[in-house]
Structure formats: C-alpha cells, structure tokens
C-alpha cells in the first residue's frame, strides 16, 4: 500500500499543464478525441486531476490549439524572406492541423490569447511590415491571411475526420470525376475536364496563399512612396 501511495504521489506531482497538453496532442495524433477520461488514462491519473489545471474542455482545447500554433511558429525559418516565412507558417499550420484534426477543426473560432497565437500574429505583422505595407494595410492583410490559414486548417481537419469516420483516406482531389460530363450543357466544365481532374486540394490551398501574398506585394508597391515618407518622420 505504501509503495502504491508513493507511485500515485509521483504521478500527481508530474501532472502539469505541459504534460496534459502534450498528452492531448498525442491522443489527437492517434485519432482520438480529447476527453478528460482519455487524458486521465494516458497520464495514469484520475480524470478529475485534469480539472486542477483546466477548468473545462473548452479551455483545454484552446490551450492545445495554441500549442499547435506555437510548434508551427517555432519551425519557421526566420532567415527566409518575408513572403517565404508566411508561406511556411501556412503550410506548417495545415500540416499540424491534419495531424490533430479533433482540435484544429474549430480553428477559426479558437481565439487563444496564448504564446502560440501571439507569436504567429507577431511574425505575420513583422513580415507584412517588412514587405513595405503601411500600418493600416499591415493589419488588414494580417486579418485576411490569418483567416485564410485558419479556414483551410479547419477544412483539412474536417476532411480528415470525415475520412476516419468512413474508414478511408482523405480524398485529395478537388472535384469529383467530370470526364463524362455533358459537353453541350456544361461546355466550360467539359473544356477543362482534364485539368479539373488533376486539380488537388494542395494546389488550391497553395495557390490561395500565393495569390494573397501577390496582393501584398502589389499593395506595398502602390503605397511605397507614402510609406517611405511616413517612416522618415
């Protein structure tokens, strides 16, 4: 009994926000949902012990998503150009979302206020400022690009969960097979049927972020004289 008591004490002592969050990410990477019961089992602790660190599941999921963002932010190569850094952040966010779909599926509404989220925001603002945008456009483009990244993260996660429910792999094709489409009724679809058949989700996601970054460059070029004067004051 004494030995069991000491073992339980050690487990309780080792339980922390960090250990709980890492356990949550491990569970979701294995395709499991995040529940206090599952976490208790993974950590060898009573599920109620998790409540000492997180008041409810919502707080736990937000903190776990913040950890996902923190990991993505840490992998960005800051020696790269401003454009490449944002592109890397987008791709890393999408890859991490696919690994943890039960958490990232709610990405667009998971405002965390934690170091992961703030670190990503700070990186993006700095990159957009380095691109040559004025203060107002820095914030506007941050909002647009951030929303796009989060929306795609949620979409990827939803696809992963749907595929898991059906016992299949994610369908990476953007559109279903249109090779037999009625060319008279849908002439433009028929004309592009081969290209549509080759279009993948990744093509669409990456084209989207590149279009947004092109828009940043165009806006920065257009307002370059104004920004230069403002920064000389």
From TrEMBL:
Coiled coil: none
Source taxon at top rank: Bacteria
Keywords, comma-separated and alphabetical: DNA-binding, Transcription, Transcription regulation
PROSITE patterns, alphabetized: HTH_TETR_2
Pfam families, sorted: TetR_N
An example Gene Ontology molecular-function term: DNA-binding transcription factor activity
Domain HTH tetR-type: 14-72
Protein name: TetR family transcriptional regulator
Record organism: Nocardioides agri
Lineage: Bacteria, Bacillati, Actinomycetota, Actinomycetes, Propionibacteriales
């Amino acid at each position: 009994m004494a030995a069991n008591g000491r073992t339980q004490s050690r487990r309780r002592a080792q339980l922390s926000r960090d250990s709980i969050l890492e356990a949550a990410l491990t569970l979701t990477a294995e395709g499991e949902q995040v529940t206090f019961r599952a976490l208790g089992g993974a950590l060898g602790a009573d599920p109620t012990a998790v409540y000492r660190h997180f008041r409810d599941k919502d707080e736990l999921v937000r903190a776990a998503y913040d950890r996902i963002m923190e990991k993505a932010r840490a992998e960005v190569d800051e020696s790269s150009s401003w454009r490449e850094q944002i592109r890397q952040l987008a791709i890393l966010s999408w890859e991490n979302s696919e690994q943890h779909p039960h958490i990232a599926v709610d990405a667009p509404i998971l405002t965390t206020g934690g170091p992961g989220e703030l670190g990503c925001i700070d990186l993006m603002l700095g990159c957009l400022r380095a691109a040559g945008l004025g203060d107002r456009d820095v914030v506007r483009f941050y909002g647009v690009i951030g929303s796009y990244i989060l929306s795609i993260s949620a979409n990827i996660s939803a696809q992963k969960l749907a595929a898991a429910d059906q016992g299949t792999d994610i369908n990476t094709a953007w559109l279903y097979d249109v090779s037999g489409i009625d060319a008279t009724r849908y002439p433009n679809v028929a004309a592009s049927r081969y290209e549509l058949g080759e279009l993948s989700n990744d093509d669409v996601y990456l084209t989207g972020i590149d279009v947004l970054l092109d828009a940043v460059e165009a806006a920065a070029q257009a307002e370059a004289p104004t920004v230069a004067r403002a920064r000389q004051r």
